[in-house]
Amino acid sequence: MVTQSILASGIGSMPGEDFAESLRVVIDSLPDLPHLPELPARGVTAGMTGRTLAVVADLGFDLQPAGWRLTDASGIDHRRARSLLAQDLDSTEEVLQGYEGELKLQLAGPWTLAATVERPRGDLLVADHGARREVAQALAEGVRVHLRDVARRVPGARLVVQVDEPALPAVLAGSLPTASGFSRHRAVHPPEASAALAEIFTSVRESGAASVAHCCAGDIPIGLLRGAGAEGVSLDLAVLTAANYDELGAAVEDGATVLLGVVPGTDPPSTPSKKQVVDRVVRALDMLGFDPNDLPGRLVLTPGCGLAGATPSYAREALALVRASASALSTKS
Fold first, then answer.
1. Residue 257: enclosing H or E segment and its boundaries?
2. Is the pLDDT of residue 217 over 90?
């Protein structure tokens, strides 16, 4: 996916409400693998779910007091989400005029949508087999259209699509609460979970883009995501379990790209130094049985999660730190 030794990137969200300014910050801070920022501070239509629903093809959604809901036709907030996305892509085209290189964008995956969007009569989509399949298929088609649009606007970009699945572990474990709060939704079996994800990764691949699956939970199902077609995985080093290390080592051995979250996503009491970050990455790679020399072009340093909850000053500091740490590791390689 990447062509240089060790790169730096962001997860997606940033503080603030000015998209063009945030994109300029990202480009300046992460010139080798920038990402299109998400700005949840602008409201629910700009959050992870709202932004992805703006991409979903041929289905309508509306914003209810409990959150987003699948509906017969697009409600005013769904139309606003689509309009906001179009405006942001206009800004992207202007800011990135003449840009050549990799460019990462983010979308929620089908299981996170199923865990955050309600079916027409209430309760989550994850409770309705037919509805969750329909939304996954519509998302896969919407991804194709969205990637064509981005590629047209930034023709020199080599696109990388990060599929965000923070809710996937809860979906697999059957730990999502029902609307009443007195019970839990049934667990989705891994083959079905993999099949829905495979539709999205296939759309990405057939659109000529690279794919990365992101989850900042400690029980990220790396093997399932890779089996569904994810070319890379993005995870938070701070929450990895022993089982994660086993699966991650197998993924690296198999040639996967790894986006490794190595600095906090919100303002810490004390920001780690570049040396501390580099030492931490080297220790993690040593536990996996690798060193930086083993991963040319396949290791990307990032914050542990999105930076929407950070102050603007720390967000800039975090991006600068992952870039400086990646550069230091590349020098070591």
1. strand 257-263
2. no
